[in-house]
Amino acid sequence: MAAASGSVLLQRCVVSPAGRHSASLIFLHGSGDSGQGLRRRIKEVLNQDLTFQHIKIIYPTAPLRPYTPMKGGLSSVWFDRFKISSDCPEHLESIDIMCQVLTDLIDDEVKSGIKKNRILVGGFSMGGCMAMHLAYRNHQDVAGVFALSSFLNKASAVYQALQKSDGVLPELFQCHGTADELVLHSWGEETNSMLKSLGVSAKFHSFPDVYHELSKTELEKLKSWILTKLPGEPERQS
After folding, report:
1. Is the pTM of this model over 0.90?
2. Largest distance between two CA atoms of the chain
3. In the prediction, which pLDDT does 40 show?
4. Which of 86, 55, 85, 58 is nearest to 69 (CA)?
5. Phospholipase/carboxylesterase/thioesterase domain: which residues (predicted)?
6. Distance (Å, rounded) from C-alpha 88 to C-alpha 81?
7. What φ, ψ does residue 136 adopt, rounded to 5°?
């Protein structure tokens, strides 16, 4: 059943900054996972939490919904898919509903005093795809977007939106394992070159022998990129 924005309150797992909060990062999990599950996986890979002095990290959990690739079984997914392929149409109705719900999350940060250009959105797998829809179709004024092991369908509504855009677009940081058998490395590359052709400043990092998973090198590279997009503010002189 379709849910309107405001009727869905996402569960959130939050990692507070060690110091003064001046920027926020929304990190979306892959299909069937949870915010807590993603945080736990990152902690296992890095042997510690992903933390920053000034950046609050929000790991929301997608609500349960029937998921077509699981024959209609319930799963915590950001949207439905007809199948996991770059060649089929997008399930836009479910994507658009979730864009509204995630907009509430962005709005909450803005209300708490964080400027929109100090908010990053991104995710792993389906979460990265959701982040690209959220930023490039609805919030082109965020600080940047990251997509790990993610792709957009060939006729994505994201591409259509960017064809009509003439402003400055958020930079995209993309990572993909060459051995990924679930979301093919070539799908990630195609997404990257398509976005570049539409004016997005897009970086693409390939990781040899990495499957559909998070790797330590990738997360360390992501952390460095996050700090270039959301640098800490200089200490105030007393």
Report:
1. yes
2. 62
3. 98
4. 85
5. 13-227
6. 9
7. -80, -15
Q: Given strand 144-148, what is the order of strands in its sheet?
A: 11-15, 55-61, 23-28, 119-124, 144-148, 171-177, 202-207
At 6-59, the pLDDT tens digits run 467 899 999 999 999 999 999 999 999 999 999 999 999 999 999 999 999 999
pLDDT of residue 3: 41
Residues forming a β-bridge with 12? 60
Token pair for 115? 């400027």
Active-site residues, by number, are: 125, 180, 212
DSSP secondary-structure letter at 34? Answer: -
User: Mapping DSSP to helix (H, G, I), strand (E, B) and coil, where does residue 225 land?
Assistant: helix
Q: CB-based contacts of 197: which residues, under 8 Å, 6+ apart?
A: none
- Give the confidence band of 235 by pLDDT, cuts at 50, 70, 90: low
User: Residue 46: what residue type?
Assistant: L
